[in-house]
Design brief:
Elements: H1 3-20, H2 22-35, H3 39-189, H4 194-209, E1 212-220, E2 230-239, E3 242-248, H5 254-271, E4 277-281, H6 287-296, E5 299-301
Parallel strand pairs: 3-4, 4-5
Antiparallel strand pairs: 1-2, 2-3
Helix pairs in contact: 1-2, 3-4, 5-6
Length: about 300
């Protein structure tokens, strides 16, 4: 008999044998006790679990009750604080309202005073307009008389201009050198602009030495001269094909001398033309600038008349 057949026979015969044979039944029960708890033990364990569940539930109910009491206390505390804050805010709003009303009343008083002043000023303005109209009428009445007198004075003025122009030319011939010195000091003390000084020296060179002085203004898009794109202005002296690049300034320092040299080289590259000489004409040349000029091969002159031999 194989195992499966034996199992089938046991399942079929065992229930009857247990009922009919007490010894066999006791044997089987003894075997099952080793693996499974008895009914009494099972009942005890079941009631023990029920007791634990009941105690756990009671503990949770106590905790929940305490939590609800705490929440109620917190709500009451929160409501009490909120009510205190509400009363405090209401009091503050009332105080602010009173203060605002005081400010409004003060502002209204100021407006009333301002309106009163405005009405008074308006009355004065109307009175002033009336006086102005009267004065304007008198002014128009005087215009015809003034015009007649002005025409007479104007005729005399034109007659005097010819004489003044002649005297002016004589005086300027003697005063040009003094003007250049004064112009230099003026540029330093704010009495005359740099452009006026440059134009004066350029005029002297053209009138006295018969040269052409050109003011060249190129745009340095690469920033070669000043380190960034900017306009580059130079004075160029031309006579019989000779190209001289000049700097006509009331005063020049060390930095100005370096800038002039960069401007000259920029002009040469831009126009593809070599300058025969670089010249700085200024009555006030800083000692450090003079050293830079000597090192860079730049000729310096304190007065435009000093370049006579050169031109």
């Amino acid at each position: 008999m194989n195992t499966e057949a034996l199992k089938a026979a046991i399942k079929e015969e065992l229930p009857g044998l247990i009922r009919e044979d007490p010894a066999l039944r006791e044997f089987i029960l003894d075997l099952s006790r080793r693996e499974f708890a008895g009914r009494a033990a099972t009942d005890d364990r079941f009631y023990e679990l029920l007791g634990e569940l009941r105690r756990d539930r009671e503990a949770r109910e106590r905790e929940w009750g305490e939590y609800k009491l705490e929440q109620a206390r917190l709500r009451e505390e929160h409501n009490r604080k909120w009510e205190e804050e509400r009363l405090e805010q209401a009091q503050l709003r009332e105080e602010e309202k009173l203060e605002q009303n005081k400010r409004w009343e003060a502002q209204e008083r100021k407006w009333d005073e301002q309106n009163q002043k405005w009405y008074e000023d308006n009355r004065k303005w109307e009175e002033q307009n009336r006086k102005w109209d009267e004065q304007n009428q008198k002014w128009h009445e005087n215009q015809a008389e003034l015009k007649s007198k002005w025409d007479e004075q104007n005729q005399k003025w034109y007659e005097n201009q010819a004489e003044l122009k002649r005297l002016h030319e004589e005086i300027m011939a003697q005063a040009r050198k003094f003007d250049r010195g004064i112009g230099a000091l003026g540029a330093r003390w704010g009495l005359q602009s740099e452009k006026a000084f440059r134009d004066a020296l350029a005029g002297i060179l053209e009138k006295s030495f018969g040269v052409e002085v050109l003011n060249v203004n190129d745009y340095d898009s690469e920033g070669e001269v000043f380190g960034r794109p900017d306009q580059v202005e130079l004075d160029v002296v031309i006579k019989n094909g000779l190209l001289l690049i000049c700097e006509l300034k009331s005063s020049i320092d060390k930095a100005g001398m370096y800038i002039f040299e960069r401007k000259a080289r920029f002009y040469e590259r831009r126009h593809q033309r070599q300058a025969q000489r670089l010249i700085v004409i200024s009555p006030m040349i800083d000692a450090r600038a003079q050293k830079v000029a000597e090192r860079l091969g730049i000729e310096t002159y304190g007065d435009s008349t000093e370049v006579a031999a050169l031109l």
